[in-house]
């Protein structure tokens, strides 16, 4: 038998190395060492956006569920995702104005929410706790949300994953929906790690209220002054969590030392996309909501949410909605809201008053225009995605529009993006006005978009015409789950 003279030492060192590797594998992440791939399983399954997935919802008495949908109460269902069954999943309708109008028009195609741990503690879809199925309400292109999330991700903003899903109910076709990763525990772990911060979805109780907290304005140091934030926390909060967030709002209100209160890189990358897509149902719009607020170590980030009414198509609740395509396409990149709104949105307004932030904002604009629009990326995303979903849109039994109207909407979205990018570039380069005041002084300057019909992207008339189609699809769904 051959024996190396240092064999005992070699064996000892090998055993020590093995022990060390075991410890690293077991406890490395808690020690701050991230594994080579930390993406949860759901990323590569349902959110593989290269194909259209299948989701069958097995629900007892679907007609009864639709009638009660406006209550947003959960019902148990079996969700069969790409052929794999998940039992006792919580299912409910979701939405705000879209939910109200779907009911008002007597329609049945609601956006839906699936919560895997609603009835089962620890329930998940390969690590995902909740997802939504977006109905593309007033989005005949089926692409507005998908495109905007792609823009946000391109700019480095943490955005929900999304992919298309052909939804059936009790085996009966129901339609093409956009599956979206809901920002909750799985989302923040994926984007910010296991030692993540706090996540909120500020929202108003009544649009007629002041809603200073939704606008992220500092009121005082009392947490009870911020009910629309803290009552919409996604995780349990401590006194220290609340104090950190209020402290960040206080600093933001001062307009000084902004880098100590705001994640400037993410926020200044978020706003160019938000402004580009002309979304008035947002932080910079009439309502001031439809965003997620992330806080970690006293730094605030604003995260994207809800874009079916983007690209200038939001008019709900506005006394004088903007309909002129010339006004919309040339809407200013430096003052993207009237003064009475702008001055009450400190996360944008106070950053823009800081010269370094203003310059960085313009740098982010240049990157968005150069690398996403002027090189044709947006057109490739739209055309490739439209080709992927085309047969499903054509077969969609609950669609809000005809297939011909869908094709028209896609062409309209392409032209809207082209014209908007041209206008934003000219504004950025100082060739046309980039503020509301300057545009008022020079109303004839700007990109000509007079021929553009933005209503082709989705309008109230489509809702009226889709009722009989949706009634027929509803009647065809078996009352009992198979």
Number of strands: 10
Alpha-carbon distance between the two ends: 69 Å
Overall pLDDT, averaged? Answer: 91
Helix content: 25-40%
Number of helices: 17
Structural class: alpha+beta
Descriptive notes:
The chain has 482 residues and is α+β, with helices and mostly antiparallel strands. It is built from 17 helices and ten strands. A seven-stranded mixed β-barrel has the order 1-2-3-4-5-7-6. It has a three-stranded antiparallel sheet with strand order 8-9-10. α8 (264-276) packs across α12 (355-373), α12 (355-373) packs across α14 and α13 (377-395) runs antiparallel to α14. 44% of the residues are buried. The model is unreliable at 21-37 (pLDDT under 50).
Task: Name its key features.
alpha+beta, single chain, globular, three-stranded antiparallel beta sheet, 10 strands, 482 residues, seven-stranded mixed barrel
List the helices and strands and how they pair.
Layout: H1 7-27, E1 53-58, H2 62-67, E2 75-81, E3 84-94, H3 97-104, E4 111-115, E5 130-134, H4 144-154, E6 162-169, E7 172-181, H5 185-192, E8 198-200, H6 227-230, H7 239-254, H8 264-276, E9 291-296, E10 299-304, H9 325-329, H10 339-342, H11 346-352, H12 355-373, H13 377-395, H14 403-428, H15 436-441, H16 460-465, H17 467-476
Parallel strand pairs: 1-6
Antiparallel strand pairs: 1-2, 2-3, 3-4, 4-5, 5-7, 6-7, 8-9, 9-10
